[in-house]
């Protein structure tokens, strides 16, 4: 009935959050972007997001130095660009310029927003206790920007090994969420 699936591929089943672009600006003033699929909501208030950013990522240094970043949420029309951003390093190029993306000043952090993305979440490190052991940073969302004029709102989700899914039809069951109504 069931087939075996390798434990090291758990992310292909459980990673359902959208791909994001992590925007940073180092103390040298250089802005950078990286593609990230390993993140998770940790709590509502304050809004905490766990992200995996290791020393192998060029953005790691800027995040550690400044303690802040922007999580930019692209929609499906940027899918190929998002993958390409993840396949090169910011230590050899200006990714905003190379990929034709627009850096926009944020309000609460030094890292830029990405104009072409549907949403941008300004974040500061809230907890880095697990960063040396698991490369896990806990970010507190400071401010969120949404482009409500953007027609395309379908997000892309990494399923591992270069496979992606795209948001489809939504179903609205908020009336059934009686236990969690205070969060709406």
UniProtKB/TrEMBL annotation:
> Per its Swiss-Prot or TrEMBL entry, what cofactor is needed?
FMN
Q: Which domain of life is it from?
A: Bacteria
Keyword Flavoprotein appears in the UniProt entry: yes
InterPro entries per UniProt: Flavin_Rdtase-like_dom (IPR002563), Flavoredoxin (IPR052174), Split_barrel_FMN-bd (IPR012349)
Which GO molecular function, any one, fits this protein according to its record?
oxidoreductase activity, acting on the CH-NH group of donors, NAD or NADP as acceptor
Q: Does the UniProt entry include the keyword Phosphoprotein?
A: no
Sorted alphabetically, which Gene3D superfamilies does this protein's record hold? Answer: Electron Transport, Fmn-binding Protein, Chain A
Record-linked SMART domains: Flavin_Reduct
Q: Which UniProt keywords apply?
A: Flavoprotein
Membrane-crossing ranges are none
One Pfam family from the UniProt entry? Flavin_Reduct
Flavin reductase like domain residues are 12-164
Similarity comment: Belongs to the flavoredoxin family.
Which protein are we looking at? Answer: Flavin reductase
Q: Which organism is it from?
A: Erwinia typographi
């Amino acid at each position: 009935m069931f087939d075996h699936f390798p434990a090291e591929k758990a992310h292909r089943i459980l990673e359902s959050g959208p791909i994001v672009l992590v925007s940073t600006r180092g103390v040298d003033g250089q802005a950078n972007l990286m593609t990230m699929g390993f993140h998770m909501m940790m709590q509502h208030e304050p809004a905490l997001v766990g992200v995996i950013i290791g020393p192998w990522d060029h953005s790691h240094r800027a995040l550690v130095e400044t303690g802040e970043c922007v999580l930019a949420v692209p929609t499906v029309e940027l899918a190929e660009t998002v993958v390409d951003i993840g396949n090169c390093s910011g230590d050899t190029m200006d990714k905003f310029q190379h990929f034709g993306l627009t850096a926009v000043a944020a309000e609460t952090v030094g890292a830029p927003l990405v104009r072409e993305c549907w949403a941008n979440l300004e974040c500061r490190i809230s907890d880095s206790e697990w960063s040396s052991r698991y490369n896990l940073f806990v970010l507190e969302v400071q401010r969120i920007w949404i482009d409500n004029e953007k027609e395309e709102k379908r997000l892309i989700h990494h399923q591992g090994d270069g496979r992606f899914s795209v948001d489809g039809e939504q179903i609205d069951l908020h009336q059934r969420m009686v236990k969690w109504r205070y969060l709406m």
